[in-house]
Automatic annotation (TrEMBL):
Family indicated by similarity: Belongs to the iron-containing alcohol dehydrogenase family.
Chain ranges of the Fe-containing alcohol dehydrogenase-like C-terminal domain: 186-372
Domain Alcohol dehydrogenase iron-type/glycerol dehydrogenase GldA: 10-175
Keywords: NAD, Oxidoreductase
Name of the protein described by the UniProt record: Alcohol dehydrogenase
Molecular function via GO: alcohol dehydrogenase (NAD+) activity; metal ion binding
């Protein structure tokens, strides 16, 4: 076991069914902006939470698309500045939470997200508004990370931004909010959480606190994702999946992710795959090569999850994905052999790829992609 490591996760976590209707107790000040997505506004979920905040001046911003653009961030920031917001609540999947994180900062920092992100020259200096994150997908763990992921449409790239101002003050985790997730989103976001957990576990930055969280997350997902997929309002399965997403988020917030996430960015921006699909389509292939650098550790994980070997764990994960109608070959999301060199080049440009426990160079990455074409 590694005996040299650091751990820092400052968000208060409040996990219980119904907790989202009790968010007001965490809010100081009166002006509250709830940043959510069109589905949660249309179905009244955002309003029900806003209405529970007696005595607060609550406004809503709902123009958030999946893989949120810098333009949506700037629009939400304008709304936050106009109302002189005291508290930003991110309510939704990773897309809404990520927008909430930077908007809470931009409320008191001038300019556009482009000034601070991907080549921008300014530094976010302060965050006065408090930040509450309430996830409605069991996937990203964004509520407990200091990461935001934004799409720069001008450059056609999607990139993470890491900043300690992005830690939420409070993560309110309410499994009841996930009962409405359709089966396909349950599957893809759940396998995103699986990727976070396994990438934290095999990561070159792995450490014992995160290993424990990652292992629990992986076990929860293997045991409960199929039930959540088939029975949307199964309380036990939904709670276990949201806990898995939370633990996986905390784990990768310390270690960062690896090759799976590095390759997911071009698969989303250029082939339109949702984040969970873009990650999990390469997951079995990465499990197969993980023994190159972490043989014993991966064998012990396979055994903990009930498999005889790492290869049978990879097969089991692939079968699970197929049983949930998820793509397991790149051609299923529109990738052709002629695209592999470009995907390799973009993936190799993300420094996290070198946190993978295997040799990652143009040849090996291209070979991995070709093996699952
Ligand atoms: P998402 O937020 O893009 O939402 C996907 C879809 O699910 C949307 O159409 C949304 O309306 C719908 N949805 C959300 N909650 C629902 C519910 N309860 N019932 C029914 N429909 C619901 O998806 P996501 O996978 O949660 O987030 C993906 C984004 O998060 C990507 O941009 C990804 O890069 C980012 N991400 C961020 C982090 C982080 O640490 N900040 C980690 C991983 C991923």
């Amino acid at each position: 076991m590694k005996q040299s490591f650091d751990y820092y996760m400052p968000a208060k976590v409040c996990f219980r069914a119904g907790a989202s209707k009790d968010a007001a107790r965490f809010i100081k000040g009166s002006n509250v902006l709830i940043i959510s997505d069109p589905f949660l506004l249309k179905t009244g979920v955002a309003e029900a939470i806003g209405n529970s905040m007696t005595g607060k001046n609550v406004a809503y911003f709902g123009e958030i698309e999946p893989n949120p653009s810098c333009e949506s961030v700037d629009k939400a920031a304008a709304a936050a500045r106009e109302m002189k917001t005291d508290c930003i609540i991110g309510l939704g999947g990773g897309s809404a939470l990520d927008v909430a994180k930077i908007v809470a900062c931009l409320a008191d920092n001038e300019g556009s997200i482009y000034d601070y992100y991907a080549g921008g020259t300014r530094t976010l200096s302060d965050r006065k508004a408090s930040l509450i994150c309430i996830p409605t997908t069991a996937g990203t763990g964004s509520e407990v990370t200091n990461v935001g992921v934004y799409t720069n449409k001008k450059a056609g790239i999607k990139m993470p931004m890491v900043n300690d101002l992005f830690w939420a003050d409070v993560a309110i985790i309410d499994p009841e909010l996930t009962y409405t997730l359709p089966a396909a989103i349950t599957a893809s976001t759940g396998m995103d959480a699986f990727c976070h957990a396994i990438e934290a576990y095999w990561n070159k930055n792995s450490q014992p606190i995160c290993d424990m969280m990652a292992m629990t997350a992986l076990k929860n997902i293997m045991e409960h994702i199929k039930t959540a997929y088939e029975e949307p309002d199964n309380k036990e399965a939904r709670g276990a999946m949201l806990a898995a997403s939370l633990f996986a988020g905390i784990a990768f917030s310390q270690t960062r992710t690896t090759g799976i996430h590095a390759l997911s960015f071009p698969l989303t921006t250029e082939f339109g795959a949702s984040h969970g699909i873009a990650c999990s389509v390469t997951l079995p292939a990465f499990i197969r090569i993980s023994t190159q650098g972490e043989k014993e550790k991966m064998e012990s994980l396979a055994s903990y999850l009930g498999y005889e070997s790492v290869q049978s764990l990879a097969d089991g994960v692939e079968e699970l994905m197929v049983s949930m109608k998820m793509p397991v070959r790149l051609h299923e999301i529109g990738v052709k052999e002629s695209d592999l060199a470009h995907i390799t080049e973009v993936g190799m440009g993300a420094p996290i790829i070198q946190l993978t426990p295997a040799i990652m160079n143009e040849e090996t990455v291209h070979g991995l992609l070709k093996s699952i074409l």
